[in-house]
Write the structure tokens for this entry.
Amino acid sequence: MAAGTVITVLSNIPWGTVIDAAPRIADGAGRLWEAARNLRKGRPPEAEAQDADTGAAVPPTETERLQGRVAELETTVAAMREQMQASAQVIKELADQNALLVQRIEVARQRIVLMAAAGSAMVLALTAALVMLWRQLA
């Protein structure tokens, strides 16, 4: 009966909705992964591009170094903010999909309980009919 339950649950999952939502979730996860990978490197790509533009002829003053560090930190914070928004969107889509699946599983569970009750009633009726038939034959 467990295999039948699994098949019933799987047949009640709105696969069309799951498949429709999959590209959005995969795209969001990809953006999130790229943002996390860039942050793991320690610097966002914009900071690397700025370093390539500056020449190394004159060493920067302390103020210029601090201004560059502040700009780098602002870029990092902006990248982290984008990553948080992307992860929040992915989490929201996954939570919506999970809620839909839970609803479908609950409907399937209720149907299984109803079928089990109907099956039990049929077994009792069949048993009673067999007992009555056996008494008449005996």
Summary: The chain has one domain: 2-137. The chain has a mean pLDDT of 80.
